[in-house]
Amino acid sequence: MCGITGYLGDGDSVELIAQGLKNLEYRGYDSAGVAVVDDDVNVYKQEGTIDGITLPDSEPTAYGIGHTRWSTHGPPSDRNAHPHTDCTGDIAVVHNGIISNYHELKADLDGHIFESDTDTEVIPHLIEEELADGVDLLPAVQRVLDRLEGSFAIGVGQAGSERLIGARQDSPLVVGHGEDGTFLASDVTAFIEQTKFVSYLEDGDVVDVGVDGATVYNDGEVVDREPQEIKWDAEDTSKAGHDHYMHKEIHEQPHALRQTLSGRVDETAGKVDLELDLGDELLEGIDRVHIVACGTSYHAGLYAKRLFETYSGLSVEVSRASEYRVHDGHDPENTLAVAITQSGETADTLSAIRTAKSIGTPTLAVTNTVGSTVTREVDDTVYIRAGPEIGVAATKTFVSQVATLALVAVHAGRVRGTISASKAASFLQSVNQLPSAVQEVLNSEAVIERIAEKYADSESFFFIGKAYGHPVALESALKLKEISYEHAEGFPAGELKHGPLALVTEQTPVIALLTEGTEAAETMSNVKEVQSRGAPVIGLSSDSGKSEFCEELIEVPEMGEMEPVVANVALQLLAYHVADLKGRAIDKPRNLAKSVTVE
Ligand code: M6R
Asked: Which residue puts its alpha carbon closest to atom 16 of ligand 1?
């Protein structure tokens, strides 16, 4: 996730764009840049935040575009910072999202000079080609958009044109209507001090901003995107109107998942492309995987264990990174060590991966953070592309980790021949449905909030689940305890009767995963055990018939073995609302840090 802003009007363009970028820093902050457009284009950009860049004073006729970056292609550096330009230096482009076919597009741009490792840079060069054919800026951009695949929002400026062009496809872009000029931005946060009148662009929209305001096109036709008045204030801005980052990040999950999957899944062929450097030979030669991770990432690892075992025929051990040891007699050549870490900086995980490396085990990282320490130490990295997560509680990174690991499992299975193309295709179909399934759960937030109100004052909360339900039970309990400070435990459903059942009373709500992929019929007998001790049961299922066996049922869409990870989103909301009712410091819970860099 990156932040885009642009301005064309009578105001101080440079100042307004720089302010917009500061406001958008919560979307990414590893590099920043501004293109000041007039009769020529001047670009000011570097690694770090906008504060580190010396910008010129604005000329009255100047306008421009700016960007604050969260890397997806190419590490944070001056050369990878946006805006990117074409060979003539007359076109500047900023971009949020992923151009999934950029390799193919780049191959067509023979003779063009590329200066960065980004996917974005193909765009100004493609526009350059169109302009060379004598086409005007707007149709040139439209033609280029027809060739782009992936999810993106872009802003384009051209020397001497007095126009800013923006476009949106699966990535947000809004137009701000100010008194003295027009703004373009990833979200309202960028310009809320200047105007509260906003047009929300829709997928496929292209906006042409000139001195007289903005015109929006879709499919070549002018469309009306009626300005709406924003009700919230500047101080709420980086949370985009949400009370907490955690709440915002929970709601960003459909978008995060789209980014995770973008350009990687060929559902029809049952294939996955992760651009892995680790060769097929290695995946064919191993017979086991050691996953090392902590906290939420460890729970994603437990989920992945089942996916790997089902789809790639690999035997998987998942270790809490702080407990990872390599035993005598272990054969490193048959093993792949996988570090799961959203930050890429967790000391325990780094230490575990170093242990694996020290005996010659090949290593892979699954992380959210380009350029993080783990990426520099492992043999290969797969990014989860969830965008920056500010709340200490991991939410969107968990679902993106699970989705990414599902893709790794299918890829390994196809390479190893343990899964047919048709089985892979049908599983990938449900993986592709994750964004809409998660959105469906988010739409039922009012139900979950009511349940939170009903049980918020309970003594303790138990979460139970079998199979894929077990990691979700552990993860949901972790979420509730870390932000509400209430006692919560997750158990394999069948374990209750071996001890924890002694703690169950009518004051202990039991949250039961009864979805697909959780052997729900067996968990139902555990539900009966706790109900007969007076505990209220909150079930999660895609089968509405389960409501007659539970005090409350949270319904989730049918998703096969990905159903529990979708149910997890409902339990993030449950944790959030319990903590909110108790007035906890949700984004920065006591004693915890976002990135744990000590062992
Ligand atoms: O950055 P990492 O994924 O390596 O972090 C691991 C844990 O510290 C982290 O998942 C922690 O458990 C979460 N903040 C819990 O919400």
From this structure: 393
Q: What is the mean pLDDT of the chain?
A: 94
β partners of residue 512: 464, 539
Q: Tell the residue nearest (CA) to atom 1 of ligand 1.
A: 343
The pairing of strands 487-492 and 460-465 is parallel
d(CA 243, CA 250): 12
Same fold, 245-432 and 442-581: yes
Residue 91: strand, helix, or coil? strand
Distance, CA of 72 to CA of 80 (rounded, Å): 10
What is the Å distance from ligand 1's center to 353 Cα? 16
Burial tier of 327 (Cβ tally within 10 Å: 0-12, 13-18, 19+): exposed
- Pick the more confident residue, 331 or 225: 225
Q: Reply yes or no on whether 550 is catalytic.
A: no
> What are the boundaries of each domain within the chain?
3-237, 245-432, 442-581
- Mean pLDDT of the 233-242 span: 70
pLDDT of 595 > 80? The answer is no
The terminus-to-terminus CA distance of the chain in angstroms comes to 30
Q: Which atom of ligand 1 is nearest to the CA of 398?
A: 10
* Catalytic-labelled residue, pool 106, 454, 582, 594: 594
- Is residue 196 flagged as an active site residue? no
Report pLDDT for 59.
Answer: 87
| Distance in Å, CA 313 to ligand 1 centroid | 28
CB 114 within 8 A of CB 121: yes
Q: Is 247 helix (H, G, I), strand (E, B) or coil?
A: helix
Instruction: From the CA of 349, give the closest atom in ligand 1.
Output: 4
Atom 12 of ligand 1, nearest CA residue: 295
pLDDT tens-digit readout, 341-399: 999 989 999 999 999 999 999 999 999 988 788 998 999 999 999 988 889 999 999 99
- Which pLDDT score is estimated for 138? 97
Q: Which of 2, 196, 294, 481 is catalytic?
A: 2
Q: Determine the topology of domain 3-237 in CATH.
A: Glutamine Phosphoribosylpyrophosphate, subunit 1, domain 1 (3.60.20)
Smallest CA-to-CA distance from 462 within 502, 402, 521, 515 is with 502
Helix, strand, or coil (residue 174): strand
Architecture of domain 245-432: 3-Layer(aba) Sandwich (3.40)
pTM value? 0.80
Strand 205-210 and strand 213-218: the pairing is: antiparallel
Is residue 447 very low, low, confident or very high in pLDDT (cuts 50, 70, 90)? very high
Annotation: CATH topology of 442-581: Rossmann fold (3.40.50)
* Ligand 1: nearest atom to the Cα of 395: 16
Pocket of ligand 1 (CB under 6 A): 294-297, 341-343, 346, 349, 392-394, 478, 482, 595-596
For residue 595, which atom of ligand 1 is closest to its CA?
Answer: 1
pLDDT of residue 330: 77
